[in-house]
Amino acid sequence: MQIFRKFFKFLYKIAGPRAKYWYRLTMFLTKARDYRVPVFSRIVDIPVRLKWGKQYRKDPWGGALDYMSHPTRIERNILEKRKIGDCDDHAIYWCVALLKSKLASKVWLSFYGMAKEDDSIGGHVVCVFEDFDGVLYYADYGMPKKINYITVWPYASANQRDAFPFSAHMFEVTSIKSDDTPVFGRGRKII
Asked: Which residue range is the domain that position 39 belongs to?
């Protein structure tokens, strides 16, 4: 088990900076062309739309095929009363909804690898954003939580899961195309 854990940590640190390419591909393959993310007037309307994470759906093969749905596919799932998706689906929807609605000045798709005391390993994705007053937050399945520094989010999020982060990366979503496709900027390694 220790060898597997070390290999997973190594793989996560290598793959992290390149994750945006995989996410771009999977979003391209899952785009729902006739749907759009709505414009929200208040931040609280976003977790309400996402059903507070209660419509969670694991990726195929027990989560082993980790992909991120295009925000328009997530919107289609919501309107058709289907399960929404997992953490990366919720996070990218947050990113697009915040920017499109002009509710944040900067937005990052942020993900980390974590380890628990029982030696289990996993990963999680959240949306980190800065409001127009310079205040930082991370959004998961509920209301965003305030953080004091941009480097705090993986620790705060992992702590909620009784875990400790061993690798963390974030990609700024610099803009949104007319079809609600997020455009990723440069990546930033946090851990």
From this structure: 2-189
